[in-house]
Amino acid sequence: MKPEELAKKAKGASDIAAHITTEMKDKALLALEGLIRERQDYLFEENKKDIEAAEKAGLGKSMVDRLRIDQKVIKEMQASIRDVVALPDPVGEIVKIWRRPNGLQVGRMRIPIGVILVIYESRPNVTIEAFSLCLKSGNCVILKGGSEAYHSNQALFTFITEALHGAGVSEDVAHFVGTKDRSYIYSLLKMDDYIDLVIPRGGEALLRSVVEQSRVPVLKHYKGVCHIFVDEWAEKDTALTICLNAKVQKPATCNAMETLLVHELIAEDFLPEMARLFKKQGVTIKGCKKTAKILKGVDKAVEADWYEEYLNLTLSVRVVKDLDEAIAHIRKYGSNHTDAIITTHYHNAWRFLREVNSSLVLVNASTRLNDGYQLGLGAEMGISTTKLHAFGPMGLEELTVTKFIAFGDGQLRE
Amino acid sequence: MKPEELAKKAKGASDIAAHITTEMKDKALLALEGLIRERQDYLFEENKKDIEAAEKAGLGKSMVDRLRIDQKVIKEMQASIRDVVALPDPVGEIVKIWRRPNGLQVGRMRIPIGVILVIYESRPNVTIEAFSLCLKSGNCVILKGGSEAYHSNQALFTFITEALHGAGVSEDVAHFVGTKDRSYIYSLLKMDDYIDLVIPRGGEALLRSVVEQSRVPVLKHYKGVCHIFVDEWAEKDTALTICLNAKVQKPATCNAMETLLVHELIAEDFLPEMARLFKKQGVTIKGCKKTAKILKGVDKAVEADWYEEYLNLTLSVRVVKDLDEAIAHIRKYGSNHTDAIITTHYHNAWRFLREVNSSLVLVNASTRLNDGYQLGLGAEMGISTTKLHAFGPMGLEELTVTKFIAFGDGQLRE
Question: What gap in Å lies between CA B133 and CA A277, rounded to an integer?
């Protein structure tokens, strides 16, 4: 199908997608869950093709691991579908209603966004997660996975069409783009008359090229340079536990801590103990001058390190004069993703909450909690750091928009 | 100032704008209201230059009228400022808060979007309205008015800087672009690292060129092809009054009715009476075949007419078989702006409300009510038909986004 034909078809199907009953949507999702289990041998076969090609192409082990579908990934995909089934249908929800002096009852009702193009790399699970969330929120989805996962994604997509068909839902509410031809995607990105939103998930290069090319609005996050500020008034044990969790629990994720800021009045007491715990877990520190004085032998951080999203066990550490300097540092080097303060001081907690404008700002909790499940949204479509529409984890609600509705009995404009 | 310098400066000032107290913002706004009154002679002088240039250039009377600042416009600008002062400050409002099983209190707090570029044509009042709303919502604004209103906008902007200065607020929170050089604006539109949102207000050509050029997200509406469907079950008098109001109260506005859809079972009774009322007001009808049978002598509507935003006293009229055909017509030819049903039938009212995805859907009320004041939002920045972030009138809340906040006592990711 030519890009324009696909986009038009999707637009046409968005009216269908918007009005599927909750029961039908859940039926299709549960059918998909069943197919993933029943037809896993076929899925493993197709996945093997991707794995072998990736190994032949000399992709790194971690890349190959992300492609791999095993029993654990099957279970994860099934669980993610059940999570979405369990979530309330957002379509048609009236989120607010108020009465005007002329008696007009005005409200806001959730509706789907329309057609969503999801562009992603490596992990084939995203095919399932993106489809489930878009279907439940009444959107028509166009899925474009990475070419390295082509066979796996294609196999999963055959399950999707089969599940839709079995549940009596039009197969046109989900589309799959298999081509490796970049110009095809670039054409889709120009079709703002048919496509309402693009959500790219992947490396910064992918995201920048999507933003560069797109005439369709894009929700994305470039990177997560997350900070924890250990205040002068921090409880030491709380600070140690949270910082350790934020750095080492899963260092390759966007919400892991990349820079630790420590108040100078607590630094000499706190940093040596923190460093010992980090050392046990293999964390390498790059410190500012003051840090290097306290922790002998650590590498010196250079200016570029403060901007760095390491995604590994490296950590930048800076001793700061006070809360102002901590906030100024986060504003200058941060990425609006996730930042936390550890403190027992009421005013400092509130100032940090108010003045740091990241998608999640925490007091006395780990940055790793920035995630749809952890925050109670249920499943999510990634974390947006675009300060428009959705800022933070994007759950079902973020895949909708509200229209105004008005119940009148003859109201006119005077 | 070069575009990049301006954009960077604005980005820097957005942190200042985000944390001005409500008191200071209101003080600056009231100072501005005072200056508009006290220094109106200067404003009239500058405005005269624009008017004379427009007349010399042979602009149409309605265009010249839109440029003109007289006592009435002064009063309107003052009232619009007082309206914004009266609205609650949205910045820092916690709109929702919930508790997670691990005890974490998670909430959503309103923050400004950041830097907003407003591009507009003709009416100089927009300078005041856009500035007031952006300041109150804690955003830094870059104002780019039409070159035809250059002197008026420039004069109003001197009042703005004076008011900010007098209230002790940094003048960097508002910027004015005076150049006629399009490439300057095109450069700004590429600076998505510094500018968070573009709101263009004006003709379709302006809007299309902004969307075409922009890497920054754009909220806009291209046009308003608004429908009223008079159902078989409509109360005739209600239908007559509402349709008349929607068409003639101010035909040149985006929320005026452009197409009237009438159920075939009521058409013969309703249309002649409606046509008599319209005729008195100078409305010209372009009708479908069935309409032409009922109303002898009306012009025949051609296919293109159903897409038409007349913005004058012309009206397309179509007789439809039922609610389904009415909804299908609106989906095909509508612009997602404002659509209404006139009915006494409970199920038809709800089906129309649910299935028509326009920014405002009304039952038994005039399309002319799609307006921030009328719906109770207070002032507005125009009506968005982009189905993202803000769909419908954009008030103060729509100029903010929510960040997640979390109050913890040691919560980790397990």
Answer: 50
Mutate to test the interface with A, among B117, B212, B236, B369 (most CBs of A within 10 A): B369
Per-residue tokens: B401: 């986004």
Cα–Cα distance, B384 to B393 (Å, whole number): 6
Domain B3-219+394-406 has CATH 3.30.499.10: no
- Distance (Å) from the C-alpha of residue B368 to the closest C-alpha of chain A? 6
A388 touching B (Cβ < 8 Å): yes
Which of A8, A331, A342, A401 is best to mutate for the B interface (most B CBs within 10 A)? Answer: A401
Looking at residue A122, what is its pLDDT? Answer: 78
* Closest by CA position to B310, among listed B345, B282, B349: B282
Give the tens place of pLDDT for each residue, A269-279.
999 999 999 99
**Per-window interface: B 270-299 vs A, CB < 8 A:** none
Considering Cα of B391, then B395, then B396, then B397, what sign does the dihedral take? negative
Only one residue has tokens 């859809």, namely: B261
For the whole prediction, is pTM greater than 0.90?
yes
**8 Å CB contact between B323 and B353:** no
Chain B residue with CA closest to A349: the answer is: B407
Q: What is the pLDDT of residues A345-361, one digit of tens each?
A: 999 999 999 999 999 99
The CATH code that applies to domain B226-374 is 3.40.309.10
pLDDT of residue B378: 87
Residue from the list B15, B92, B368 with its beta carbon closest to the beta carbon of A413? B368
Of A219, A144, A208, give the one whose Cα is nearest residue A174: A144
For residue B373, give the nearest of B162, B68, B80 by alpha carbon: B80
| Unique residue bearing structure tokens 């509508």 | B334
Q: What is the pLDDT of residues B142-161, one digit of tens each?
A: 999 999 999 999 999 999 99
Distance CA B42, CA B32 (A): 14
> Which residues in chain A have their CB less than 8 angstroms from residue B334's CB?
none
CB A167 within 8 A of CB A24: yes
Helix B40-56 and helix B22-38: axis angle, to 10°? 70
Tell me the shortest Cα–Cα distance from A181 to chain B, in angstroms: 23
Q: Please state, in angstroms and rounded to a whole number, the distance separating the CA atoms of residues A58 and A64.
A: 9
Q: Where are the domains of chain A?
A: 3-219+394-406, 226-376
CB contact under 8 A, A404 and B392: yes
Write down the CATH number for the domain with range A226-376: 3.40.309.10
Asked if the model's pLDDT at residue A60 lies above 90, the reply is: no
CA–CA dist B397, B394 (Å, integer): 8
Residue in chain A nearest B403 by alpha carbon: A359
Return the bridge partners of B99, or none. B105
Q: How far apart are CA A16 and CA B8, in angstroms?
A: 44
Whole-number Å distance between alpha carbons of A176 and B12: 42
β-pairing verdict for B383-388 and B390-393:
antiparallel
Q: Is A168 left (phi over 0), alpha (psi -120 to 50) or beta?
A: left
pLDDT of residue B122: 78
**Given this model, what pLDDT does residue B60 score?**
87
A 321-350 residues inside an 8 A Cβ radius of B: 331, 349
Sequence-separated (6 or more) residues with CB below 8 Å from residue B140: B10, B11, B13, B14, B16, B17, B114, B115, B116, B134, B172, B173, B174, B175
Enter the ipTM: 0.94
